[in-house]
C-alpha cells in the first residue's frame, strides 16, 4: 500500500467506529419509542454524515479523499423499500431494482469491509478498471439508488405541500420528474401499466399511517437531510461520469 492508501484505510476504520457508536445510540432510542418509517429514515440519515473531503499529501501527489459511508446509505434505501411496499404493486419494479442494487453494493463491501465502507472507493475502483458503465457495475447501482432517493424526495415534497393529495397523481408526477428521463421505453411502459393499480382513494396519509400532526414535521426534517445528501451524491457521480447512464 502507498502512504495515501494507508491513510484511506485508517480514515475508514475511524469512520466505522464512529458509525457503530452512533448506531448503538440510535438502537437505544428506537427501543424507547416505536419508530415510523419516516422516523427511522431520519435516524439513518443522521448517522450518514454528508461527505467530507480529506486531503492526503505524499512526496509525489496530493489526493482528495471524499468519505461517504456506504452502510447507512444502504440502510436508508431499505427504508425506501418499506415505504414503496405501502404504496402497493405499482412500485414493485422500482422496489426490485432498489433491492438488487443494494445487494450488488453489499457484495462489493463484503470483499473488503474496511476499504469499501466508503462508497467513493468503490466508484474509484471501477473507474480505474474501466468497468463503471457495465450493466452490472456498482457505479450503476449507486446511480439508480440515487435516482430512487430523488423519487422519494419528490414524493415527500408533494406530501408536505398537500397532505391529502391523490396517490396516483403524486406517484406519476414524482416519477415523471425524477426517473422517467432515464428510463427506456420498456421500463416506462411497465411503469405506466403498474400505475393503474394505485387505488384512486389512496392518499399519502393513509399510506404512511400518519394521523398525528408531528408527521409533517418529521417529513420536513427528512427532506432537509435528503436535499444536501442528494446534492453530494449527484456531484460525486458526475465526477466519475456515470450520472447520465440510462436503462432500457
UniProtKB/TrEMBL annotation:
This is Pleckstrin homology domain-containing family A member 8. SUPFAM superfamilies: Glycolipid transfer protein, GLTP (SSF110004). Belongs to the GLTP family. Keywords: Lipid transport, Transport. One of its GO terms (cellular component) is cytosol. Gene3D superfamilies: Glycolipid transfer protein. Residues 69-209 form the Glycolipid transfer protein domain. One of its GO terms (molecular function) is ceramide 1-phosphate transfer activity.
